[in-house]
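Fill in residues.
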């Protein structure tokens, strides 16, 4: 199995990292495949197991932690675990592709720490906390309390931005998409 590169996109919820990652996955010349994270939370209405996430029960998630099946994992909110199964990275590398992640900042930095030379870690920053709150409300997928919880977490996450290799400020989506494409293209050609 030839090990490819690892491209991490992390950001506060609502910053646009998922939109950027989806755009990059459509660029066939980059030879990327998406690392599907595992989570212990329940699926949202439109989410599909094995496509959006690997949905595991809390007990199953904890069992896999004990069995050292995760590259990285974190309890993001109480009893809401997220993580990257080692088998996901192995699956993508076995297909001769580079792995792209859309994960939280702690997980992203963990991967960078484990594979420092193979990882490009990119932080996607919203133009402001106020804009972030507008974006989260526009989604209409969460309660006001959940939005406020995400905003509080965003302030903490934004403080980690300097630990990443690059910061993309998503003020204009097309500019952010172009910047992300160029960063990834340059990194995988090294």
């Amino acid at each position: 199995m030839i090990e490819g590169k690892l491209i991490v996109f992390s950001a506060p919820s609502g910053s646009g990292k998922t939109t950027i990652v989806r755009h990059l996955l459509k660029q066939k010349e980059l030879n990327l495949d998406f690392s599907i994270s595992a989570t212990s939370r329940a699926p949202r209405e439109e989410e599909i197991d094995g496509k959006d996430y690997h949905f595991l029960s809390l007990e199953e998630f904890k069992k896999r932690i004990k069995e050292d099946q995760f590259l990285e994992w974190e309890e993001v909110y109480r009893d809401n675990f997220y993580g990257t199964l080692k088998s996901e990275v192995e699956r993508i590398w076995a297909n001769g592709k580079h792995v792209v992640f859309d994960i939280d900042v702690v997980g992203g930095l963990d991967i960078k720490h484990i594979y420092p030379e193979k990882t490009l870690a990119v932080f996607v920053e919203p133009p402001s906390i106020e804009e972030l709150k507008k974006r989260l409300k526009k989604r209409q997928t969460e309660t006001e309390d959940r939005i406020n919880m995400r905003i509080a977490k965003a302030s903490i996450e934004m403080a980690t931005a300097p630990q990443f290799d690059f910061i993309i400020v998503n003020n204009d989506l097309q500019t952010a998409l172009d910047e992300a494409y160029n960063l990834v293209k340059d990194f995988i050609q090294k």
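The beta strands are 6-10, 32-34, 38-39, 54-55, 70-77, 80-85, 98-102, 119-125, 166-169.
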